[in-house]
Design a protein that fits this description.
Blueprint lengths: L1 H18 L5 H16 L3 E2 L2 E2 L1 H15 L5 H22 L5 E2 L6 E2 L2 H10 L3 H7 L4 H8 L9 H7 L9 H22 L9 H42 L2 H10 L5 H10 L3 H9 L2 H19 L1
Antiparallel strand pairs: 1-2, 3-4
Length: 300
């Protein structure tokens, strides 16, 4: 009898623990990936997941985590992620902030962070924790008009994304093309009587025009995304130019000629220029000496 009471209490405790929904980074990432999967499968319309999507998300979330949290708990987290996406997007709308996909961190000068957080206190958490799942959030919460063109990601990934920037349009095109192929097969079948009325002909023309319009729009959006990427890269590189590094180098005191020219060799690397210009001025000389010493030892 006592054993049954103990097991009952243990079960009740486990259920209470599950009901509290303590979200960790890894659990949140699992939920985000499940939502991304449903977006790609077309189960999100007007910024809302349909019933089929939520059933899949709830079932798979339990399979992957062992946590039987209900739909309301997952939807509450969805709302939290929406607010997080809005906060991070607002930060990255500012040219002084950079998101690193590899680490999930968002970097900027300390002074810039201080000024921004004064006006936007919610950004304090983002500064300390970053946003490792920002790529997933872009897919989940982007407005339909962007169709996945996440300019923050495209600008700094350094490579072309394999995902077509207007997947919804091309998906529609594929469905219409399939219907068109079926019509052609029916036309070749001698047992099939085809309508020859002007209305049917007009409908086919409208269908072809819709396909052409979708393809044209897709091409225009791809071109626009490419221009945005090129402009963003150019702007990013301009912020950490060789000229700026040399200008600050000339203003530094207590720097000998050997260290000066060794630093110029280091500045051939864009990431070195970025770190140098991002450091506070009183720390740059110490950092340069360390980097040049490492470079000298590796050559020796």
């Amino acid at each position: 009898m006592a054993g049954q009471v103990t097991r009952s209490r243990r079960l009740e405790t486990q259920q209470q623990e599950q009901s509290r929904a303590r979200w960790t980074t890894s659990i949140t990432k699992i939920l985000a990936e499940l939502m991304v999967d449903q977006v790609h499968k077309g189960n999100k319309h007007n910024n809302l997941f349909n019933k089929k999507a939520w059933k899949y998300i709830c079932d798979e979330f339990y399979n992957k985590t062992g946590l039987k949290w209900d739909k309301e708990q997952l939807k509450n987290r969805y709302s939290v992620l929406r607010r997080q996406y809005a906060t991070v997007k607002s930060i990255l709308d500012q040219s002084d902030f950079i998101w690193d996909e590899a680490t999930g961190s968002i970097t900027a000068n300390d002074e810039i962070w201080v000024e921004y957080i004064k006006k936007h206190p919610d950004a304090e958490t983002v500064k300390s924790c970053g946003c490792p799942i920002f790529k997933e959030l872009c897919t989940i919460f982007s407005e339909p008009a962007t169709n996945g063109k996440h300019e923050y990601l495209v600008a700094f990934e350094g490579e072309h994304t394999s995902r077509t920037p207007c997947s919804e349009l091309l998906s529609t095109h594929q469905e219409e093309s399939s219907s068109g192929s079926q019509d052609e097969e029916d036309a070749n079948d001698p047992l099939t009587v085809q309508p020859t009325t002007p209305t049917a002909t007009c409908n086919r023309k409208r269908g072809r025009k819709g396909i052409d319009d979708a393809i044209a729009k897709a091409i225009l959006e791809m071109a626009s995304a490419s221009k945005m990427r090129a402009a963003a890269i150019e702007q990013h590189n301009a912020r950490y130019s060789m000229a700026d590094c040399i200008k600050d180098l000339d203003l530094m005191q207590d720097i000998d000629q050997q260290l000066y020219f060794a630093a110029l060799d280091l500045f051939n690397k864009p990431n070195v220029r970025e770190i140098f210009l991002s450091l506070k001025k009183d720390k740059r000389l110490t950092w340069l000496r360390g980097k040049c010493a490492v470079a000298s030892n590796s050559i020796g």
